[in-house]
Amino acid sequence: MNSSDRQYGVLLLSFSRHSHQRSFVPLFQAHPRIQLVAVADDDSDIEPYLRKLNRQWARELGIPYVEDVDDALALSGVDIVSIGHEIERRADLCTRSARAGRHLWIDKFLGASVEECDAVTAAVAESGICAIVPSYSYGSLVTRCHQVIQSGSIGELMGVHVDILFGKGWPAPIPDEDRVPFTPAGRWKYPDLKRELLTVGAYSVGLLQGCFSEITEVAAHGDAFFFPVHARRGCEDFATVILRDRKGRTATLCAGRSGVATHPAGGPSEAWLVGTGATVYVDAKRPSRVQLLRDEVVGTDHRPSEDDPMQWASGGAIWTPAFSADTAGLAAGLDEFVQALDEGRNPTFSAAQARDNMEILLAGYRSIEIGEPVTLPLARETSP
Amino acid sequence: MSGGIVVVSDHTRAHVVESLISQGFATGAVVVGRGRLPSGAYGSLSEALGRQPRGVAFLTPYSNLGEDCKTCSAAGIPFWVAGPVPGSDPSRSFSRWRHAPEVRALMDGSENAAFGSPVYYRRIIGGGTSLLATWWALEDGLREAQTLLRATPVRRLLSAGKQGRHWHAALHLTMENSSTAQIVVTPSAPIVPADRSLLGTGGMIIVKGAHNAIPVQTSTGTELLYDHTWPEVAWLQAVADASDPAPAEADLLRYLRRAARSRHIETC
User: Fold this and answer.
1) pLDDT under 50 in chain B at which residues?
2) Is the pLDDT of residue A336 over 60?
3) B204/A contact by beta carbon, under 8 A
4) Bridge partners of A88?
5) What ipTM goes with this model?
6) Which pLDDT score, from 0 to 100, does residue A384 have?
7) pLDDT at B234
8) Are B148 and B198 within 8 A, CB to CB?
9) How far apart are alpha carbons B19 and A147 in whole angstroms?
10) What share of chain A is helix, strand, coil (3-state, %, to 5)?
């Protein structure tokens, strides 16, 4: 069998509500070179809801559920591990999987801290496996921005400005008495919210990483504007960031969850590339069509379902659907991952870049906390 | 051309000068710096002042602007400046930004109760063709942000870079009410109106400069035509007939110089 015929078996490590594993499944199923092998988790260490959910997914997919991760990693036919656990458990699972010689498909973040991300990066390098964090490099916004820059039409790049918002969730007024001081970074898992600078800001930072040299300075502001649950926990639902890179170039971004029905495409996903020769505006959700069908418009119920109030797994109405079905680029990322495995090379967005992405975001959180710009790299609490 | 208003501008606002003259708001123009202005141009400010104009409107900044203002003053001719004058009273008022139809649209939209409370203002505009032009664009953006976010800044962060004559600057504002603004000036000529987005707790108002242009398709390609009311028209009418609104301090110039030199994010 030559490499282009080879099938790759995927082990699905958990279906945490805080991950995108459920979104990865259809991609894996549709790919001609991928086979789903099993669902697994450390069953005795997880919450009851997740035990139930993992089993439910295994049943629906018609594959076994393995109650111990190490046992699952030892299964024959497992080539790739798709990490879909809470951020707090990802570093441990990534490291164990890498040491077992399995390639890694990782959902957005390597770990919960820069030290954890360092550990995963080291484990990936030492084991010689291939790891991809597909969320940042393959979407329409990134690929189109890179095309513009590489075309030379903007001259020398001087700056990048990115606005990405998710038009999701049902905002409500926030009483002053509900507000508590800003909660520093470190805890990411909440039952009812995600930290939005981390969750949404990671996409913009991924774009910047592909355009700039290393980021050296970060300043940010974040707060709860839309959702009382964020205010009560001192967590941001919206944040803005200004950054500089080693060459003195400037970037700004905004990231957040701004509520349903506030944007015709479900939230802006746009960038301005500033060069010496031109400034170019790029919209990830174009080309698109305007689609206003009366029954849909007047009959749309924008209220999120009770079991997904922040719409982590669902979306609102879109009146200007993009032509592309893969604006997020996950299918393109999977294609590149398979190709990288065939060729024995690393994919475009490496584990080290994912570590740097997290470090930039953590600098943003630190800046919000202290009210000052923060210089990178961040100090480590322990040696990597 | 005597008796009317003379405008002083560099070539990047030739389209505005043309519009002012064709609509009868100005009767002549003086070009500063390189480039040319449309017909109706005087050879110098002295020549224009010799025709005893009703007033002089300075549309762009340049190094000798302060001296030229003094010359107008000494000649007893009223003058109006679209932005702050370097080296002069930093609290001198200017209000061109307020007359941009896009800003008025955002103000109208955000006064709707459904808009809720302001959260974020993004403004991206060309004009970074010189240090002083970048400064004016930042000062305009700062004032727009204060008005649209209904608060004054408690923190201002500025980052800037320069490549030859090309300036790029970003001003990050955190306001008293915790809303933020990102004011960006690009090196492009200020021909296209700004891209502006205003986010409130109740929704978003977006005005993209280029999206309101008329695409003109020719045998060789597509051009964008701006059938546009430039803010200078309404500004000139307002300042020539009455006084500007309350002044606000314009102090970003020294921070802009510092940010471009230090290659760091400067608190200002």
Assistant:
1) 1, 246-247
2) yes
3) yes
4) none
5) 0.94
6) 47
7) 87
8) yes
9) 37
10) 35, 20, 45
d(CA B262, CA A294): 56
A268, A274, A278, A283: CA torsion to nearest 10: -10
Q: Is the pLDDT of residue A111 over 70?
A: yes
Among A107-121, A167-181, A200-214, B27-41, where is mean pLDDT lowest?
A: B27-41
Residues in B touching A251 (Cβ below 8 Å) = 170
Task: Report the residue from A240, A263, A268 with minimal CB separation from B180.
Answer: A240
Taking the Cβ of residue B188 and every Cβ of chain A, the question of whether any pair is shorter than 8 Å is answered with yes
The one-character DSSP state at A379 is: P
Task: Give A99 or A348, the one with higher predicted confidence.
Answer: A99
In the numeric block, which tokens belong to residue A378? 């961040």
Amino acid at A305: S
pLDDT band at A2 (very low <50, low <70, confident <90, very high): low
Chain B contact for A313 (CB, 8 A cutoff): no
Q: What is the mean pLDDT of chain A?
A: 95
- A189: helix, coil or strand? coil
Q: Which contacts (CB < 8 Å, 24+ apart) does range A369-376 have?
A: A369/A182, A369/A184, A369/A185, A371/B155, A372/A219, A372/B267, A373/A217, A373/A218, A373/A219, A373/B157, A373/B264, A373/B265, A373/B267, A374/A217, A374/A218, A374/A219, A375/A216, A375/A217, A376/A214, A376/A215, A376/A216, A376/A217, A376/A218
Alpha helices of B5-152 — where are they, by DSSP H? 14-22, 45-50, 65-74, 101-110, 131-148
